[in-house]
Amino acid sequence: MKTFKMGGIHPKEYKFSAGIQIQTASIPQQAIIPLGHYLGGPSLPVVQKGDKVKVGQMIGQASGFVSANVHASVSGVVNRIDVHLDASGYKVPSVFIDVHGDEWLETIDKSAEIKRECTLSSAEIIKRISDYGIVGLGGATFPTHVKLLPPPGKKATILIVNGVECEPYLTCDHQLMIEKGEEILVGVTILMKAIDVKRAIVGIENNKKDAISLMQKLAKTFVGIEILPLQVQYPQGGEKQLIDAAIGRQVPTGTLPIEVGAVVQNVATLFAVYEAVQKNKPLFERIVTITGKSLKNHGNFLARLGTPLANIVEQAGGVPEDTGKIVAGGPMMGRALSSLEVTVAKGTSGVLLIPALEAARKNMQNCIRCTKCVVACPMGLEPFLLMSQSERSMWTEMENERVMDCIECGCCSFACPSNRPLLDHIRYGKSIVGKIIRTRQAKK
After folding, report:
1. For the chain, which end, N or C, has fewer CB atoms within 10 Å of the first or last residue's CB respectively?
2. What is the CATH number of domain 1-23+111-356?
3. pTM value?
């Protein structure tokens, strides 16, 4: 069975919420919708205090090409525009909306009918995706329309769809494939038309046999779509790793997937594309997994953007008494939260409540040069060396050692027998090197 060729690990899966039907999260009394919850420039508010808004109405306009529109997830009155804490621990501009009823824009098709035929042209599809604020929902939240418009001289030859969901605990994509598989495949055909390719591969790890079986059955009625079972191996969901596993092409250092003719999109993104193009529905809600070993009611919740995470966790049974850490996302690439008042954003895939005994860091020991971190790294880096350079502020050396190729998957820290916080130091060094590179390029 196919997988990527370099590095990787196999942590325990802990998919407690697998197979649990998607539930609708309750609508909050006040939604706090961040204006900068995706990769790229923050959107600019187009509403002000006292304005009445409907579900689906644009409240934030993209500030540039690599940016995305933001839409109201609730109906009501704008209370204020202020800063609010996001999952990264930063205060970001947000729109506070006091909720009154649940009135949607009349243009949104709320019917359950599945619309397979897309009559829009390629340019019209990309414009609709841009207008409706679609971003990558697999974690990176890169504006989708940007991926669909390759630079001059580059041409897509294949669409690769990420149904891998290799992070332990998370099951939102898995359950979405089970419940909305046909809509996802319609979304695949829409993006195939948008980028003018005749072939698409949907990669799904082999621990989701029910999703593989269902999607293979559904794909028989679509032209050019292959469902590809993959060996279970973390981080198979990484773009470059998935491209390697699916078509055997390696994306060169410092380049994007389009360099090898590939465009990669997550299954949840494809469903959002379907809803935008076929149902005139902007991206204002998403599936969020709420899980943890001690949680009473694991689940996958359809939550409106701007809903406080505390509300959904309460629906799942509340914070267990033994909780020591709460993480937004999965345990490998997620980030610890300082508060559950953080609200659902476009990139919120899950909330993981970790017991205190597991959350405590083990004592760090000296590096024994065992090279387990090197063997585990799916990008062919030397994590032990990068950590040492980061500790010593050796930014030029880190750039030369390709720190910007790091995908921050955490394989190195997981594999280290000395409990060294490799990723923490590498992530910090990467942020400094990235700033240096951007400053250098701005001077040219």
Report:
1. C
2. 3.40.50.11540
3. 0.96
